[in-house]
Amino acid sequence: MDELGLLFNGFAVALQPQNILLMVVGIVLGVIIGVLPGLGGANGVAILLPLTFSLPPVSAIILLSCIYWGALFGGAITSILFNIPGEPWSVATTFDGYPMAQQGRAGEALTAAFTSSFVGAFFAIVVITFVAPAVAGFALKFGPPEFFAVMFLSFASFVGLSKSSPTKTLAAMLLGFLLAAVGMDTVTGQMRLTFGSVELMRGFDFLVAVIGLFGISEILLSIEEGLAFKGRDARLRLNVVLKTWAELPRYWLISLRSSLIGCWMGITPAGATPASFMSYGVAKKLSKDGADFGKGRIEGVIAPETAAHAAGTSALLPMLALGVPGSPTAAVLLGGLMMWGLQPGPMLFVEQKDFVWGLIASMYLGNIAGLIIVLACVPFFAAILRVPFSIIASVILVVCAVGAFTVHNAAFDIVLMLVFGVIGYVMKKLDYPLAPLVLALVLGDRTEQAFRQSLLMSQGDLGVFWSNGLVATIMAAGIALLLWPLVNGAYQALGTLARPKVTNAP
Amino acid sequence: MSGHLPSAPDGGLSRHGVEIVTAAAIAAVGAVALWDSRRIGAGWGADGPQSGYFPFWIALFLLGVALAILVEALRGPKSDEAFLTRKQLRLVLSVLLPTVVYVAMIAPLGIYIPSALLVTWFMARLGGYAWTTGLAVGAAVSVACFVTFEFWFLVPLPKGPVEAGLGF
User: Fold this and answer.
1) Element at A357 (helix H, strand E)
2) Count of helices and strands (H, E) across chain B
3) For all residues of chain A together, what is the average pLDDT?
4) Contact with chain A for residue B72, Cβ under 8 A
5) Cβ-contact A72, A308 below 8 angstroms
6) Given CB atoms, is B15 within the 8 Å cutoff of chain A?
7) pLDDT tens digits for range A117-171
8) Which residues are CB-neighbours of B120 under 8 A, at least 6 positions away?
9) Spatial separation of the C-alpha atoms in residues A373 and A69, rounded to whole Å
10) Residue A175: its chain B contacts at CB < 8 A?
11) Are A119 and A72 contacting, i.e. CB atoms less than 8 angstroms apart?
């Protein structure tokens, strides 16, 4: 139980007054970011990242990770009260949450959502506490071929597990790798893909890309829906909270199952959004009242919220232990680590004990603080959406521009942000997933380095990726995931041939 | 994504057309990257893989995948589904065009005055507020930004001739 001792040291770090204050500020900011359309976990963190340079790394990551927890909580508020998912992972929450609000059970739905989020997150943090150090310890033995194999596996699992078309997932990912290659080659110092442009020599910063891809594009998407938000009453009475809490233990099985689904989907970089849909689908399929889902069942709120929060939280496990983030927001946090001069990966657990355990302890505290803050302040957060869209949208655009500028103090980055915004908008509308692009952009250089070092070790022989049991197993798993859509497609095609023609739902 | 855009029956954009243009654009990116990687050397140098080695293979795969999407889109049924209806297109442009102007104004004018103007424009044109109300809110947003970044965070943002005239 080495972990427990280290965890207590972590609590000592996290409980410093400055860090507690940052935690609360982070949660409140995060919920606001989660409530507003156009600002999400990933780009909210990206915008604020450059402002944290003056803080010590552990305080900075506490602030930023708490923004992430807050955003996870906040998405549920708008889903339930306004039928507008503030975040993609809360789309599934609207299915039953909004009908509940229409029936006057908004308080019940909100309490269930927040509490489930908390349960899912808590489960994931316990997993992180005990599994991450073991994974990191194991990964200390990794050489460049193994690291390349792990990255290959995580990118392959995007293709295998994503709901989008495999070709579009691949295209987005490869585009990300190419964007990462722009600029100076860190090994030889040669300029790549810059075409003589001085501005491109710096390369594309993923923060600028994230702000455009997730921020600007979101504004453009939400304007399509028209401009007005119509919401339900948002008061949350204590007796409703207590009554719902008394009811929740009955659904322990759904919570446990959703937590497991969430953790699995978060550690493999499928992410919170598919996790919430999958968990909702499984709950609906396994419930004997499955047909009533979508009409205001409380299970329909518990299942996606638990899974989304478990996935969002456990996405930090591979980020901490291996340096391979499990979600776009985790990728932005990883970028933060590199900017603060920390080397992500298994060595973090050896060299930066205070940092890692301070962060893990802050996850426990941050989620408890988050639950209290959202339960107490729902009406305030819901009121934000009553501010007219014309004001919210323009202020968010200004905030995005400022955020993009502060990354490198470069005005050209604001132009890039806008270009990425339009690209992200078109990609989203055509169902190209954005997460693989962002992850590839963040990890591109490190993936390439691992690849080149491996080839150097083997004098150019690709056999190095099959040279021992460990690396061969990881590579084989990756290739299996990569080919999974093909196998699945062939299987389904066989099924349709064998069976008489049945009209399938799209 | 410039040039002539494919139009849908009601004058908006058809999804089918945008799908094809996008796939073609991605393929073009792949082709250009392929060419550039070849130019700087995509083989095995004296000291290991050359700079273009990794991007070369990525670009090659990207080109292949983009062509697959393109073929899929060209061969697939040509549905009438709209990428954007005419009405949606107008709404999106009503946000996008002022934003483009805003970004273009930052270089000569700094960030504060264009920001105030952007908020004003949005409120007056999209929100139906009086111009004076918009201007007041816009100015307030800019001043709040100025105080937050220049004094509190000590992060200097782009400033133009007006700020210079005021002594900053």
Assistant:
1) helix A353-384
2) 6, 4
3) 83
4) yes
5) yes
6) yes
7) 999 999 999 999 888 888 888 888 888 888 888 888 888 877 877 777 889 999 9
8) B131, B134, B135, B137, B138
9) 12
10) 26, 29, 62
11) no
